[in-house]
């Protein structure tokens, strides 16, 4: 009896060890498949320009380390760093505006009663059903009527609008999750509405704000079609538009080393933010999926 | 001690009055908090939406006067062979890419859902392409797929798989499947996470009970996992379908609609009509068609998700 049970135990632990190794083998292999294209691009940007023109086998530089590709990139059109500045301005402004506006709206929808409240809420949420691709032409005209055509400010306002349904949904839920008693206590202590929001509520809904800001950053940093349509002046190009122009040969023969340097500049902030704030990202994703 | 009691005694009767005044002011204060959001959504969404409908009834060039022409644009759409071809291609792409994404994402979700050390690392690795954006991913793959300076065709040649360099982007089928591979790489992690949340909501007791009853892995997947995940699968499906119907970036950046205009999607065609040919009225009418398709899809989504049978 004893012997039998110990034999079963050892054979099952052998099997589970084999299974363990097999599963982790699969895991490591698949992880490499998914990360490989990104790693390939980043490694190859450090090749000298001559080598960068050759097929990237192997991906890492073999004839010496160089940052020439990044320097070349700045010579196209208005320059990479100019476009990078545009992208940074657009992304940061969109993050801040999205966070502030959805914070206020989330608070309003969660804590106040006012006429047509549900109507307004449904109006904002229902915009998610309509593809913004289908209303770009009028947006283009409205921006020019407002004197904002071809301005980064105009692009920011459009981007912030597109973030509204998700962000307000997220922030209202964040406020709903805060106990009413905390607010009541602060109110009795004489806090005004605004102080209540910034001093008491903000720390409590901060995870929601981070989630909203993270999505706003990733979406606006990477957005392509609206920027392509609305920004017609090369000085206003964001990184994706600029790099597409470089890749299409608009500035002469395509320099793939430089294109991958640009792609790297576009990818790195997203990857860093995601790795740092992964928890908040998954939170945002599942908030939509569960509700 | 007595002073505290006295204080509390003072506050209690004052509270109802305070509450009443809060509700009165609340009518305005609440609106003030949501006002910025409402203004933005009105100016950059509701009004443009109305304008799209209005413009679709006009001949509306970029410069010069626009002219009311009734439903002429819509009549023209029925005869616009290239639009219907674009729509057909978009649907073909949507079906294929959605199947491909699920074929990869479902096994991935089952793989990372099991509690196991290192799983967080795998999950993160599979998810990384999701956050880099379609434009970056397309530019990256434009390089990998490039016939001379890229990775795939020179590698295939060096390995002796092809005699000379094979241009993957020159003909329809290799180009189309290259895009499918790129999109699956980029999106599978996203679908995986959605499916994973569904898997995690299934009580483990159910699986255990079925295991004891002698059900094998496939039977358990068919009889327990899939039915209980209906809602999650529906959500992942709808997100994938809606995203694919609106595809633009990858076809514009990687293929420029080629080879020989065979990969122009619906959004690409609207973009061409509106912002290359500057037929704004006609573009608006095309947009309305696309919009109707997506709203119908969203309504189907709501029905699928609301169905009480699912959890």
The CATH C-level class name of chain B: Mainly Alpha
Cα shape of chain A = globular
**CA(first)-CA(last) distance of chain B:** 54 Å
CATH topology of chain B: MetI-like fold
CATH class of the largest domain in chain A: Mainly Alpha
Helices of chain B, by number, come to 13
Helix and strand pattern of chain B: HEEHHHHHHHHHHHH
The CATH superfamily label of chain B reads MetI-like
Category from helices, strands and their pairing of chain B: mainly alpha
CATH-level-4 superfamily name of the largest domain in chain A: MetI-like
Give structural notes.
- The complex is a heterodimer of chains A (291) and B (311).
- By secondary structure, chain A is mainly α.
- Chain A has helices at 2-44, 49-52, 68-73, 80-111, 117-126, 136-145, 152-176, 180-188, 193-222, 225-230, 239-247, 256-290.
- In chain A, α4 (80-111) runs antiparallel to α9 and α7 (152-176) packs across α9 (193-222).
- The radius of gyration of chain A is 25 Å and the shape is globular.
- Mean pLDDT of chain A is 87; it is low at 1-9.
- By secondary structure, chain B is mainly α.
- Chain B has a single domain, classed as MetI-like fold (Orthogonal Bundle), CATH 1.10.3720.10.
- Chain B has helices at residues 2-55, 72-78, 81-113, 119-131, 134-144, 152-158, 172-200, 204-212, 217-228, 230-245, 249-255, 266-276, 280-306; strands at residues 58-59, 67-68.
- The relative contact order of chain B is 0.12.
